[in-house]
Amino acid sequence: MGQTDAVKPRKKSAIPGVTIKQFVEVIPKGCSTPDFERKPITLTLQEGKNAMFRAVVKGQPPPKVIWKRSKEEMNNPDKYQMSFNGITNEFILQINKLTAEDTDLYHCSAVNEYGEAACTAGLKVIQGRTDLKKELQDFRKMLRKRTPLPAQKKEVDMEQVWQLLLNADRKDYEKICLKHGIVDFRGMLRKLQQMKKDREDKQQQYIYSVTNLKHIKVNKEGNATFHLEMDLKNPESRIYLYKDGQLINYGFNDDKVKHCLRQAGKKYNFTINHLQLEDAGVYQIKVEDVDVFSTELETDSIPVGFRHLLSEVHCHEQGNAIFECSLYSPCYDAVWLYRKHPIEESDKYKISISPDGLTHQLVIKNTQLTDEGTYTLDIRICSSSAWLEVERLGNQKHLKSTGTGKDGQYGSNQDGSGELYGSSMDVDWRHGSLGQDGLTGRVGKDGRMEKKSHCHFDKGLSDVSAQKGKPDVLSCSLSNDQLTVFLGHQRLISLAGYNFHAILWQGVSSFCPTFLWLRVRVLCGGAPVSTALLEKLMKEPVIVKAGQNAMVKIPFEGRKPVRATWLRDGDELLNDARIHIDKADNFTRLSISSTNRKDCGDYKVKLKNDSGTLEASLKLEVIDKPQKPIGPIEVVDSSTTGITIQWKPPKDDGGTPVQNYIIERQQVGRKTWVTLGETSRNNSTFTTNKVGQDKSYRFRVRAVNAEGKSKALESDEVMAATKAFPGPPAPPQFVSANKESITLSWAAPPKTGNSRILGYIVEKRKKGSNIWTPITDLPITDRKWMVTDLKEGLQYEFRVAAVNAAGAGEASAPSDAVFARDPMKPPGRVRDLKVTNTDYTSITLFWMKPDSKEGGSAKGYKVEKRSSDSLKWTHCNTVPIGLTTCTVKGLQAREMYFLRVRAINEGGLGEAVALDTCIQAAPPIVSPKFLRDDTMKNFMIIKAGSCIRMHMPFEASPTPEVIWLKDGLPLPSRAIVSTRDGLSQLLIPSAEFSDSGLYTIILQNHWGKKESFSFQVQVADIPQSPGPILLQEKVLNTVTVIWEPSPTEKWESNLYYVVMKCDSNKGSWQVVGDLIYTNKFTITKLIPGRGYYFRVVAKNYMGTSDPSETAQPWIMQKEKDEFKVRLPKYRRVNQNMPPRFLVQLKPHVVTTAYDCHMSCAVSGYPKPKITWYKDGRNLSEDPTFFSTNDFGVCCLVIPGVTKRDEGEYKVEATNELGHAVSKAIVACIEPITSGWARAYLFRKRHLVLI
């Protein structure tokens, strides 16, 4: 009501008292409406103190928290201080210097764009001194000294005494004899000897052996145990337990019974639970009719417990609750617990102990709904618990005001007076709905209608101090005589007079003071309503079967318009697919179709008009079949003769009690299920002997109530095999350790055998020892144990073995060693925390160890971080680090972070130390710089088709722009460039001759700083074969080899040729010309008459081409005998000609330290003179140069070229007829690879041959 259509109310918050409104239809994924994780609580404080409300909220996006109060605005910043605690995530409202005017209702709301969550908390300021102190003083006067009743001495049969002596140790003989009046010690020994012989003869009928007898012992839990190991001849032999000669019934493996037997193999453990003084006596074990073992439980060994246990306490909100109990013996170190948390005396709790230490009292002041729960008094040996129920103020709907008087009553005035409500009603109860005659009142918890009236208290109740066992009177005065008085929910007396009313309290109890609630029912101007009908309305709920429809119709009368609202469990009901609400001028109706168990609950209808408000309550119960029993089905025992299973009752019985359980069985491999039998509703264990050896079965259990059967709970496969031992558990873990005890915990073993685990055997040993010692005589049923009997300062190891019906299984691996010593103090603060390095994804911290004077020594450190836009700290390392430095990784680039470090040791975490400022995840500024190494070369020769790959490591921060160029231009599209993490790589997958050139890489940052590096790349390949060979014989006994140039010569400047010959008589090839840069070569010294083959190959730095050969041998003709021929005279031809160059000099690029060979061909007659010049200087007399002239082929060799040999070289040919000149340039480069050296040696060797 009062909400717009755009606001969608949420069904219910997880925190009671919180209402949530939703502003949008659909909430995006990852977002949510606000809600409270912890809401502020109502406070009652004295005047002058400070009040502090705390709230913890959640929601995405994080909501904004707003504080308000009902009466006035909170504009005074000195009075109202609002803050947020980032460590605890609490929003805090602090109200300073409280006055009576601060008593009010305070509102807290959390709002984001998707919704709003709101709740309220009350603040009550008490003026002056409260009456609580007086109440406590009065209560202390009621405490009286009490002494425990002396235990009555029991008479023990002497036959039982002799049985005790038979099983007692010799050292205990004297004590037993003195206790029971046996004075003839020697006679006692003779009699015992004879009795032992007789007993052994009798035991041989049923028992092979009896060993390891352990007499009765009492543990800290107040239970007594004794056990023995017994090998029975017949496992079916009956075992009896007697106490003082009387047969005792005992249970098997059930801690809920008084006497319990647990059997693990041959070991029999008897337990007496919840010891009382009457449990003292002599206990005997018999097999059939033969005595086996006797032991005595003495009265002095029984821990004294509670004479009067704590009982449940009911209290109204803002009242005082008192728990009290009494003991048999004094105890001054008892501890009060609330939900297992210790309670200390404070403004909230008052703890008192009587001078004799027998009576203990806890007073809870100003109770709130959050104080409900279990309160426990722990006296070390045992404990007692009781429940506190706090009744909400709003439930006292008889009073107009919700104030609290000093005596715990509800009223509007200080004396407890206030207005009362009353009315009458007429209700018809039919078919699960309210009748048609109408509802004209308000129904309270007791089923009575209430309506506003002008009746009120003239005088309220006041405190009364009464003596135990004597009567006393409570009285009050009312303004109307049509009244009925009730105490609690019971009508006590009729009225005595018109306006003065008294309650006679017969026999006041001293157990605790009682706060009385006086409830008055007023009938104004009408006949009384039928009490039976009203009680039927409240006590008999509307019962509907699941799947049927439920309808409740409430007629009413009153001034129109009347607004009707239906609620279920405090939440407003709205129309949906199943729920429909009809509203008319004189009735309202609630219809629920296809009901289910979720529709059960307390329903309420609120009627409101301008004159007032009415409420009516009813309860709807939907009955259905029960849910299936709670699993899993546990195998209690499994053997070749039978299987015992156990389960838990269903969580929901369907609204009607479970009548019985049906057990079915299926053999694995078959499809049919066979019904084995039924058990009562109180029995959740079933045993069947209809099994076959080594066969596997499945079991299922169904719960049955009046409505039918539940779904089946099915078990895993169970094999009817011989008993198997359980597997080893995991090594035990340490919960806590001190110099007196070590607390262990462990998990159940993964393999339990074919029966359930009955307990665990825990063993200990000193570190370095091989001897394991059990810490208890009996298996431990829990998976947690506190080990005592330790020596301070020693290290201990522990292991655990599981026990089932077959016996003890394999022990676990040993635990880690732990010292028996008190916990260490937490370490102090780390020192000198600073940042040593940063980058885009990490920040490196360094700190110094804490000062040893501030706490314990640090065993490790934990680093925490949070971003600048978050208040939540997160751990950077899951395991404490041992170093004083840490690199926090996984950060967002350029984000701001807060970092802190805290030391840790066995004593806990030390105080956190944070950096003074937030740190940005970015590296420091570093100018671009190449990290040159041996892999970076200035010159590279790459074989064509191979990959060109160049790695260029660099450092720079921030990451610079990387630019690659070839001959000053962008790279070709085939080039692939990748840059990452300070490394840039150039990759050309398949090199071509066009890829030769000068490559440059440039690093440039945002501030214009540059760094560059260049390198030369030459792409080469094995040359192609020269063309066909042509042979010419121009001179006797010589041949000139001429060939077509290799195609590689077009793009290869360092190509040369090698000419080889092969004598047909010898068959081997011989190099006759090397380093030939022309396409012809003259071979001399040939033998006439022999056949020669010639071969030409092209060479460069990459290798040798395939040869080009002559197909037919070349044969030089033999000279014949001289014969003379007379020839006519002729004139000689003039052969004179000036010099001319047939082959010009070529420019050369030579590697430093290598030889340079320059050649040319010249012709002329007479033979020209050859002169070499360098930069105009004649080289003829220079010994560093070597020149030759063979038949016009002129060569100049420059050995070991250096930079000084660079320049212009000229060769001049002169004769009488003229001269000719040829020039060429020689350039020198640095050596780059070892291939150059090999080429140099190769050329030098062949030059010598030439």
From TrEMBL:
- Report the residue ranges that make up the Ig-like domain in this protein: 34-124, 923-1020, 1139-1227
List, for all copies, the residue spans of the domain called Fibronectin type-III.
629-725, 728-827, 829-924, 1025-1120
Question: InterPro entries this protein is in?
Answer: FN3_dom (IPR003961), FN3_sf (IPR036116), Ig-like_dom (IPR007110), Ig-like_dom_sf (IPR036179), Ig-like_fold (IPR013783), Ig_I-set (IPR013098), Ig_sub (IPR003599), Ig_sub2 (IPR003598)
- Looking at the record's lineage, which domain of life comes first? Eukaryota
Question: Keywords of this protein's UniProt record, alphabetized?
Answer: Disulfide bond, Immunoglobulin domain, Repeat
Region forming the signal peptide: none
Key word Repeat present in the record? yes
Query: Which regions span the lipid bilayer?
Result: none
Keyword Repeat present in the record's keywords: the answer is yes
Pfam families given for it? fn3, I-set, THB
The record's listing under PANTHER family reads: IMMUNOGLOBULIN-LIKE AND FIBRONECTIN TYPE III DOMAIN-CONTAINING PROTEIN 1, TITIN
Write down what this protein is called.
Immunoglobulin like and fibronectin type III domain containing 1
Recorded source organism is Terrapene triunguis
